[in-house]
Amino acid sequence: HTHTHTHGDGTTEADVPNNILFLTNLPENTTQMMLQVLFNQYPGFREVRQVPSRPDIAFVEYEADYQAAIAKEALNGFSISPTHNMRVAFAKK
User: Fold this and answer.
1) What's the rounded Cα separation, in Å, for the pair 22 and 50?
2) Quick one: which of 4, 9, 39, 87 has the most CB atoms within 10 Å?
3) Could you give the residue ranges of the DSSP H alpha helices within the chain?
């Protein structure tokens, strides 16, 4: 039995579906355009939001959480540069 923090519905904290994805481990020179091209391949894409003070993270919004989940599965661990594998998780609600 692993000790992960669970909510009452039995889902672990990290995996509560959300229509917003949280990207981490991005290279310093990641542009909004690069991310848009990647995430726009999946239906329901709305927008990319970057955090000015933190170039290594970004948020991507989809219309529905199941659409975000498809992109998350496809792009988590994607080699966005030779030295960086992008991490994709659901944003915390």
Assistant:
1) 10
2) 39
3) 32-39, 65-75
Strands 87-90 and 20-24: antiparallel
CA distance 43 to 70: 9
CA 21/CA 42 separation, integer angstroms:
13
pLDDT in tens, 5-25: 455 555 455 578 999 999 999
Helix/strand/coil for 88: strand
63: helix, strand or coil:
coil
Whether pTM exceeds 0.85: no
